[in-house]
Each structure stands twice: as structure tokens, then as C-alpha cells.
């Protein structure tokens, strides 16, 4: 099934058999005497030739979305009613006829997707009013879309009988005005894998949500056209006018998603959904050097093969659309901004006494909530290790708001990143002119230092961490690696896009070392991995409910990367309102470790390999681009 393709030849067959349907559409626009008069003359029939949609591959060239041949059943209610009266008797009402036809059809199409009640409704109406009030005949309705071959087999047999006299009356009626047209259906062989990232395609071949929506123009292809002269019965005239242009098949795309890492990430988070019962969860795995998105998980999810069974909020790609106050995971980004602009250095100190009153506001450290001792004198490294709000606020107030704002913007905070995997939120970072008083700016600056008063998406934060891992250089996150022309077989590979440095390589490496301590000795201990050093930070952000922080509603998260001395994987994990577990260090850090360990085992079996090799790239090229062209 996985190798089912959408050949152009098949689509042409589809289009030609659609001819009658299109013809009926034409008749729809005509009425009574005018129709008869016109029907006596010659007609120009125009047929749109539907293109086949391109495939979607993972970076390991597994088929994540493709097409399958299906069959749709349509009817001409007007003709059916007329034929039925001739065969069954003139006195029958439209509804009685529709009920008999529906019963016959349901006995042939044994599928729960076709209901008798629904068919009666579609078949009993033969006239409807146009917007200008004038009635028109209904000569075409869909009865069932995209059924498999087994389901339509019995109906097909009836419609193909040549001698009508051999048929029982109920089948003769069907034959007068029922047709079957082949149609291509989108299928997703891996069912729910990366569902929100892929999105789905509706019955009209339009990409909805995810990559299917954002890359619709590439995938969709171009319709072809056939125009020919036909007689009153719709038969082509041999010497008549004729033009034909073939449809252009949609191009296929190759994602940056590694289906194996994606699978592991989904398994880890499925388990977390059961254990912690959060409202939703997001996972991102990024390659910091290229910005390649290796995994993108959004839970709860859906089955794109049967998207109509799910509510629309399941279709959102939460790593791109979930907006929240990041809390402590934001501290390293602010720390990088402060170090880089020179307002503090590694020896600059601050002091935490649990509560710090300054000007018109005060800042509390989490130690007060947990009832542990205050942090005392701290450097920026200590502040990150202890995740101390007061020290961060004191450091941040040494800078100007403008300076911090500019650096954070460079990291990608507060704007859409243009990933192309579904709807993206810009988040929120107050521009400097936002504040009227100096004191209000100070207050905002202080809270921003520990991730409050700013809203981010998980992707924005993952990109910022990737920049720290990548010597300060911000890479544009990308989901598509290449596009394959289905007509020529040629693949166009895209180059990773460098968005410039947010901070210097030196600043980035200092923050990286501090994030290693935060995992080794600080709040992120449970994110440790066997054999490699991890750099990362936990986050526990209280949510604002009705204008106040509600301590019972939290977003817990962990952002980090490994191996710390030569980072290959950035992982961001965000759980919204877990029912069990209220601290990022308890909930999100172990999930990071579980996912990170599985990624390592994948590339490090069973004896240790050198991690300086780009193993993700190796696994990709194990299937060469030539193999792709042969598929
Ligand atoms: Zn503190």
C-alpha cells in the first residue's frame, strides 16, 4: 500500500469519466424550454483535469503522506425521479422514490459511511432556487466520497450490466442516474505520527493545517483542461473542436523530520500524557547547526486519515501556536543578552534574601514558596544554577530596556519564525516605547529577567537555545529540506538559512557552561544523560488567570541540548497544566532525559561511537538521493 502512487494516466481516466458529471453541471444552469432548445444544438464541453498531489517524505525518505485510488458515487436526482416514475408508476412522490432508491443503494454499498436517511435527503430534491430566485434542476449530487474498491464492487456490477432487461426494476432505476468516479484520496501511512505537523487534505484536495496547508501550492499541482464539442447526448463529435492540456502533478517534499526521532518523541510524550494528565504537550527536537526540525510533537493529536472525527483544536501545531509565559527557561536568554552587552560579567554579583523590595515593587524568589534558605550572594552562573529570580532581576536592571529588547529580538523572541508547518503565533515582547513611566519600565525589565511579562511559543525558545548551542548564531528553523519534481524526478535541496548572531561565540560558550552546571548541580539534575554532558534549564511558570497568577495552574518545561561540548540536538519539552507534578525539574527534566537517552542509543549502539561524527546526517544518507529518485 505504501508504494501506491498517483500516476497522471490514472488521473486522466478520472477526469474523462468525470465528463458526464461536468456535463450535468452544465445542464444544471438551464431550465425547461431553454434547455431543450439548446440541447438540440451543439455543445462545447469543458473538463477540468485534476492533478495528483505530491508526496511528503521524512528526511529518511519514509513516505508520510501519499495518494490512494478511491471511488466516489454521484447521482442525477432529476433523471432518477423521471426514470423511477416510468418503471415504478407515476403516482409516487419524490420522497417515496428517494426512499426506494436509497434502500437499493444501501443494499449494494455496505458501509456505515453511507446512511439511508442522508441519501433520501439528497435524492428527493430535484429543483432548487438560485440566488436570483429562479429555480434550476438539480442534475448532480455526491452521494458518497472516496470509498474503497470492495465497497463499490456490487454497485459497479449493476451499473455495468449491458442488457437492462436482465435487471430487476430497482437496479434499472439506479442505472438511469447513478455514476461512479475514481478519485484520489490522501493517506497517511504512519497514522498519527507527526499529525499536526503534516495537517490533512480535505475532500476538495485543499491542504488544511500543517505542512499540507503551508506547502499546498507546491503539493497541489496544476489542473489540466480539455475542451471538446459534443452533441445533445453528450457524445463527442469526431471532427469537432478539441483542445487538451495535461494536468501537472504536484511536487513532492522532503521534510527535515527524522521519523525515528519523531516516533521516540511521540512515545515519550504519550507516556507523559498518561502519567501527568496535562491539557496539552509540545516537543521540539532541533539540529542547532542547520535549524532542521528533527521532531515536532503536538498532543493530544488526531488521525489525519479520519480528521473529520476530531475537534479543530487538535489540528493546531502547538510547538508553533501555544503561547505562554516561559518563566525560568527564559533566564539563560536574558543572561546571554546581559553578558553580551557588557553590563555584567562573570564576576558581577547580586544578592538574594528571598524577597527584594526596590522602588515601588518587590521580587520574590522561589525559595520563599519552597521554604528553603535564600541564595545569598550570586554570580550570573549561580543565578542560572539556582534559578534565582532576585539575582536575575538585579542583573537585568543594570542594562537599559532598549538593549535587552534588541538582543531578545535577535534571538527570535516576539515574532513569527516562518517555519511553514501550520499556523504560527508571534508571541509577545513589549517594544521599548510601550511604557510611559520609568518605574513601569524598571518593573517590566525586572520581571522579564525571570520570564514573566513576555509570551513565547515553544519553537521561539527552542530556536534561542539552538543559537546558544550554535556559538550565538541563529538558524532559521525549517521543516522542508527539499522539493522533488514528480515530472523530472529532480530534487532541489534548500540551504539552511543563517539569521546572524544574537550574541558572540564567547558569550554563547559562557552561557553553555553555566547551563551544564544547572544540570550537573542545579535544578535540572534529572535531565542528566549517561555518557554525555547536557546543558539545559528547567521552567515552572505560573499561569495568569483573570489577571492574577494562579499557583495551581502551571506550565512546566525543560529546554536543553547535548552533547554540551559539541551540540547536535536541542530539545524543548512543554507541558501545559499537568494535573500531577508541579515543577519543571520533576516533570519535564526526566522527559528530556528519556528522549535524549533514546536519541543517543539510536546513534550510539552498542559500543560508543564518536559523537563528533554527524550521525543524523549519516543516517539520512544511508538512503541516498538516488534511491529517492527510483521510488
Ligand atoms: Zn534566590
- Helical element count? 24
Percent in helix = 25-40%
> Quick one: how many beta strands?
25
According to CATH, what is the topology of the largest domain?
Beta-lactamase
User: What portion of residues belong to β-strands?
Assistant: 15-25%
Small molecules bound: zinc ion
Tally of individual domains:
2
Distance between the termini: 13 Å
User: What is the structural class?
Assistant: alpha+beta
Summarize the structure.
The protein is an alpha+beta fold and 631 residues long. The longest helix is centred in the C-terminal third of the chain and has 20 residues, at 584-603.
Report on the architecture of this protein:
By secondary structure, the protein is α+β, with helices and mostly antiparallel strands. The protein has two domains: 8-255, Penicillin-binding protein 2a (Domain 2), CATH 3.90.1310; 259-621, Beta-lactamase (3-Layer(aba) Sandwich). The strands form eight sheets. Strands 2, 3, 6, 7, 12, 20 and 21 form a seven-stranded mixed sheet that branches. A five-stranded antiparallel sheet has the order 14-13-25-24-23, with helices on both faces. A three-stranded antiparallel sheet has the order 1-10-11. Helix 5 crosses helix 6 (116-124) and helix 14 (331-340) packs across helix 18 (401-411). The longest helix is centred in the C-terminal third of the chain and has 20 residues, at 584-603. The structure holds zinc ion. Residues 352, 365, 367, 375, 386, 388, 390 line the site of zinc ion.
Amino acid at each position: 500500500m505504501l508504494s501506491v502512487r498517483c500516476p497522471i494516466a490514472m488521473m486522466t481516466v478520472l477526469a474523462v469519466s468525470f465528463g458526464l458529471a461536468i456535463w450535468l453541471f452544465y445542464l444544471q444552469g438551464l431550465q425547461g424550454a431553454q434547455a431543450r432548445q439548446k440541447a438540440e444544438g451543439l455543445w462545447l464541453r469543458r473538463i477540468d483535469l485534476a492533478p495528483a498531489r505530491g508526496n511528503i517524505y521524512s528526511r529518511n525518505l519514509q513516505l508520510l503522506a501519499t495518494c490512494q485510488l478511491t471511488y466516489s458515487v454521484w447521482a442525477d436526482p432529476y433523471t432518477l425521479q423521471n426514470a423511477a416514475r416510468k418503471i415504478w408508476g407515476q403516482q409516487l412522490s419524490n420522497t417515496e422514490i428517494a426512499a426506494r432508491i436509497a434502500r437499493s443503494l444501501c443494499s449494494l454499498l455496505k458501509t456505515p459511511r453511507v446512511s439511508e436517511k442522508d441519501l433520501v435527503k439528497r435524492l428527493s430534491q430535484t429543483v432548487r432556487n438560485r440566488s436570483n430566485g429562479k429555480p434550476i434542476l438539480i442534475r448532480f449530487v455526491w452521494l458518497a466520497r472516496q470509498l474503497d474498491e470492495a465497497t463499490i464492487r456490487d454497485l459497479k456490477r449493476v451499473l455495468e450490466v449491458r442488457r437492462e432487461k436482465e435487471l430487476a426494476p430497482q437496479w434499472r432505476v439506479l442505472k438511469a442516474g447513478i455514476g461512479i468516479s475514481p478519485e484520489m484520496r490522501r493517506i497517511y501511512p504512519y497514522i498519527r505520527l507527526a499529525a499536526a505537523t503534516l495537517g490533512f487534505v480535505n475532500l476538495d484536495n485543499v491542504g488544511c493545517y500543517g505542512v499540507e496547508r503551508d506547502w499546498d501550492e507546491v503539493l497541489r499541482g496544476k489542473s489540466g483542461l480539455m475542451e471538446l464539442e459534443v452533441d445533445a447526448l453528450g457524445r463527442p463529435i469526431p471532427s469537432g473542436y478539441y483542445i487538451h492540456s495535461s494536468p501537472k502533478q504536484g511536487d513532492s517534499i522532503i521534510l527535515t523530520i527524522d521519523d525515528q526521532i519523531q516516533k521516540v518523541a511521540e512515545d515519550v510524550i504519550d507516556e507523559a500524557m498518561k502519567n501527568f494528565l496535562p491539557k496539552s504537550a509540545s516537543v521540539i527536537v532541533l539540529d542547532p547547526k542547520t535549524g532542521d526540525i528533527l521532531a515536532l510533537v503536538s498532543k493530544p493529536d488526531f488521525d489525519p486519515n479520519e480528521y473529520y472525527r476530531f475537534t479543530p483544536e487538535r489540528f493546531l501545531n502547538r510547538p508553533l501556536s501555544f503561547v505562554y509565559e516561559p518563566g525560568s527557561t527564559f533566564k539563560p536568554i536574558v543572561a546571554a543578552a546581559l553578558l553580551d552587552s557588557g553590563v555584567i560579567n562573570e564576576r558581577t554579583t547580586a544578592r538574594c534574601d528571598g524577597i527584594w523590595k526596590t522602588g515601588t515593587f518587590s521580587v520574590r524568589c522561589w525559595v520563599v514558596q519552597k521554604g528553603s534558605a535564600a541564595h545569598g550572594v550570586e554570580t550570573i552562573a549561580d543565578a542560572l544554577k539556582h534559578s534565582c529570580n532576585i539575582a536575575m532581576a538585579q542583573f537585568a536592571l543594570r542594562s537599559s530596556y532598549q538593549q535587552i529588547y534588541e538582543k531578545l529580538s535577535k534571538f527570535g523572541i516576539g515574532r513569527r519564525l516562518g517555519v511553514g508547518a501550520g499556523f504560527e503565533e508571534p508571541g509577545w515582547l513589549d517594544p521599548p516605547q510601550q511604557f510611559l513611566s520609568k518605574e513601569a519600565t524598571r518593573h517590566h525589565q525586572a520581571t522579564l529577567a525571570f520570564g514573566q511579562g513576555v509570551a513565547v511559543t515553544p519553537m521561539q525558545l527552542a530556536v534561542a537555545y539552538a543559537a546558544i548551542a550554535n556559538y550565538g548564531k541563529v538558524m532559521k528553523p525549517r521543516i522542508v529540506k527539499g522539493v522533488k519534481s514528480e515530472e523530472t524526478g529532480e530534487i532541489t535541496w534548500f540551504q539552511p538559512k543563517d539569521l546572524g548572531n544574537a550574541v558572540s561565540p564567547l558569550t554563547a560558550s559562557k552561557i553553555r557552561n553555566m547551563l551544564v552546571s544547572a544540570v550537573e548541580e542545579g535544578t535540572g539534575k534529572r535531565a542528566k544523560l549517561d555518557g554525555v554532558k547536557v546543558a539545559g534549564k528547567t521552567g515552572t511558570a505560573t499561569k495568569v488567570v483573570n489577571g492574577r497568577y494562579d499557583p495551581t495552574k502551571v506550565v512546566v518545561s525543560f529546554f536543553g541540548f547535548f552533547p554540551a561540548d559539541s551540540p547536535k540536538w536541542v530539545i524543548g519539552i512543554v507541558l501545559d497544566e499537568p494535573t500531577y507534578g508541579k515543577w519543571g525539574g520533576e516533570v519535564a527534566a526526566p522527559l528530556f532525559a528519556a528522549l535524549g537517552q533514546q536519541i543517543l542509543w539510536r546513534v550510539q549502539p552498542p559500543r560508543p561511537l564518536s559523537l563528533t561524527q554527524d550521525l543524523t546526517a549519516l543516517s539520512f544518507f544511508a538512503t541516498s538521493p538516488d534511491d529517492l529518485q527510483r521510488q
